[in-house]
Design brief:
The chain is an alpha/beta fold. The chain has 21 helices and 20 strands. It has 3 domains: about 5-160, no CATH class; about 180-335, Alpha-Beta Plaits (2-Layer Sandwich), CATH 3.30.70; about 395-600, EAL domain (TIM Barrel, Alpha-Beta Barrel), CATH 3.20.20. The structure holds ligand C2E and calcium ion (2 copies).
Length: about 600
């Protein structure tokens, strides 16, 4: 009987002082004349009054008694009750009637415990009390049980809540995990709710941090970043870790618009930098961020995420370590979700194929190698050209996947072609088009190395083509460093579509370039436009003085070929020799072309 609610002690306590329920043994119980328990109106069977006659009369009196009950104060979480006391005069003596109504106790709720004190002397009282004891005890046991039950229930609820919290939480950082974030964000973005900003935060070069400084540091770094992100936003902001090194924040924007969010984002960026500095690594702490607003840019979570993702990749493509707000006009091309998912499916079904287009030495007709170009074979038999799916090049995951596929399949085809003429293995090359994402990826060089080794090829077997767009996307020098490294390993680097970008000539001075590719638009108009001819001549002049090789693209006619040869252009590619051919025809491509023949009359000399 240790766990007694305080109200019973009160009800049974002074002034008569002879009835104590807070006692340990029956011997200490004395003085109660009657005790019964009521549920609603009727006395339940088995409940007794010690002297049935007195008990019945007391009960009748009790039911007639007026007056409000006195509410017992109980500590939070305890059962509360209402107590009433009245003195009743009977021939047997004066009794003090106490009633105790339980509230809020699951087991005893609505029951009334009646106690009557006084009336008889000690012996008689004890005799009268004894039959009541089982009832009192039963009552108290029920109470105890319900207390235990309640405590169990509360404990179960607490562990449920803890479990729920665990299921929703990212174990490493303590913020919401990806699934929980998506769920909560979806709820918060329900129609008619406040305006929000979704901020995707991608830690720059995290993989490298992990590799170089170890996983323990990587974990501490992520934890510090999570704390910094949480601290940067107002309380109640939803923060989640949605990928290894990606966080997401859904912030209320009460003051609506980009200025308010820009302030928070700036605060978040400096918080992340501080966090890295506190870990003794001030050179880290860089993150790229993409921001989109709801409802301005999108109403529901999937669309909002897509917009923020598009902005994030714009931030990455512009060299990382920046925050970019979604702009419908410029980022729409990044988020062609439908196209991206179709493309992924096609890639899984091996319908993205590597085609090869020969690059020909213009003075001799020898095939110098090939450029590998992607073609999308649709299930209806149509073949899509890259210009119809170039949106996928803007998605870093797909772009990297595409490059990997082109490297793998292109090298296979190239290897088969070389097998027919091993003597060419030393000087023929396969040209591969790269995107910004490949060159921001530290793994690219290792992956390419293993693809080459697997086929017994060396780095001198590949040319890597980049456009000025790639160069312009390098704000922190990483692409430059990667290109230097690739070149040091022995790959040749080609500047693609030269003259069409916004770069200018300084790139030729500053970047590790071996080959200039003259864009098709200059070659095709060379015959009719003196200016285009002048551009071609100028490029050839620069190349000659600077020691670049040149590949003229888009040679379609004998006349173009003739002009280019006379201008001293070393190499070219174009439909005059061959369009890009499908994999099954690639191995049979000639090793040399007859330059005297027209497009239709080309013959193999190899
Ligand atoms: P690019 O790298 O400048 O590739 C040359 C483009 O010119 C190819 O178009 C080729 O088929 C086309 N071409 C070559 N000779 C002639 C010709 O005589 N006449 C005409 N009209 N066209 C000619 P394609 O295959 O449609 O590729 C377009 C662009 O898409 C490529 O331009 C390249 O930037 C990109 N691309 C293609 N495949 C890949 C790839 O696997 N990865 C990446 N990152 N980009 C790719
Ligand atoms: Ca190219
Ligand atoms: Ca080109």
């Amino acid at each position: 009987m240790k766990v007694l609610p305080p109200m019973i002690a009160m009800a049974a306590g002074p002034p008569h002082g002879t009835f104590g329920l807070l006692c340990e043994s029956v011997a200490q119980l004395s003085g109660a004349a009657a005790c019964w328990l009521e549920t609603g109106r009727s006395i339940p069977a088995g409940f007794i009054a010690v002297r049935p006659d007195i008990g019945a009369r007391l009960r009748e009196l009790a039911l007639q008694l007026p007056g409000p009950g006195k509410a017992l104060s109980a500590a939070p979480g305890e059962v509360s009750g209402t107590v009433q006391r009245h003195d009743v005069r009977l021939p047997e003596g004066t009794f003090r009637l106490c009633s105790l109504r339980f509230d809020g106790c699951p087991d005893l709720d609505g029951m009334v415990l009646w106690l009557a004190f006084g009336g008889h002397g000690g012996t008689a009282r004890r005799a009268m009390l004894e039959p009541a004891l089982p009832l009192i005890r039963a009552c108290m046991e029920r109470w105890q049980r319900s207390e235990v039950l309640q405590r169990d229930l509360a404990a179960a609820e607490r562990s449920c809540a803890r479990l729920e919290q665990q299921v929703r939480t990212d174990a490493l950082t303590g913020v919401e995990n990806s699934r929980a974030f998506r769920q909560s964000a979806t709820e918060r973005l329900a129609p008619g709710r406040a305006e929000h900003g979704l901020i995707l935060v991608d830690i720059d070069h995290f993989k490298r941090v992990n590799d170089v400084l170890g996983h323990a540091f990587g974990d501490a770094y992520l934890q510090a970043i999570a704390r910094a992100i949480v601290a940067a936003f107002p309380a109640g902001t939803l923060v989640g870790r949605i990928g290894g090194d990606e966080f997401a924040v859904l912030a209320d924007t009460p003051r609506s618009g980009t200025a308010y969010l820009a302030g928070l984002v700036a605060c978040c960026r400096s918080g992340i930098q501080r966090a890295a500095a506190m870990l003794g690594r001030p050179e880290l702490g860089r993150a790229s961020m993409g921001v989109a607003l709801s409802p301005e840019h999108a109403a529901d979570y999937p669309d909002l995420f897509e917009r923020a993702d598009a902005a994030l990749y714009a931030a990455k493509a512009s060299g990382r370590s920046t925050a970019v707000f979604y702009e419908p006009a410029s980022h729409a091309r990044f988020n062609n979700r439908e196209l991206a998912s179709q493309f992924r499916l096609a890639a899984r079904q091996e319908r993205i194929r590597a085609y090869l287009q020969p690059v020909v030495q213009l003075q001799t007709g020898f095939c110098r190698g090939f450029e590998v170009l992607a073609r999308w074979h649709q299930s209806d038999g149509r073949i899509r050209l890259p210009s119809e799916f170039d949106a996928v090049f803007r998605d870093h995951r797909i772009a990297e996947q595409l490059t990997r596929g082109m490297v793998r399949d292109g090298l296979d085809l190239f290897g088969r072609w070389l097998a027919r003429c091993p003597a060419r293995a030393g000087d023929a090359r396969l040209a591969i088009n790269l995107t910004t994402f490949d060159l921001l990826n530290q793994e690219f060089a290792f992956d390419l190395q293993s693809e080459l080794s697997r086929r017994g090829l060396g780095w001198s077997s590949v040319t890597l083509e980049i456009t000025e767009h790639v160069i312009l996307g390098d704000s922190n020098g990483q692409i430059h460093r990667n290109l230097e490294e690739l070149r040091a390993r022995g790959a040749k680097l080609a500047m693609d579509d030269f003259g069409t970008g916004h770069g200018g000539l300084q790139h030729l001075r500053d970047w590790p370039i071996d080959i200039l590719k003259i864009d098709r638009q200059f070659v095709s108009r060379m015959g009719s436009s003196p200016r285009d001819r002048a551009v071609v001549e100028a490029v050839l002049g620069i190349a000659d003085r600077c020691g670049f090789e040149v590949v003229a693209e888009g040679i379609e006619t004998a006349d173009q070929l003739d002009q280019l040869r006379r201008m001293g252009c070393s190499d070219g590619q174009g439909h005059f020799f061959s369009a890009a051919v499908p994999p099954e025809e690639a191995a049979a491509l000639p090793h040399a072309y007859d330059l005297a023949a027209g497009a239709a009359g080309l013959s193999s000399r190899g």
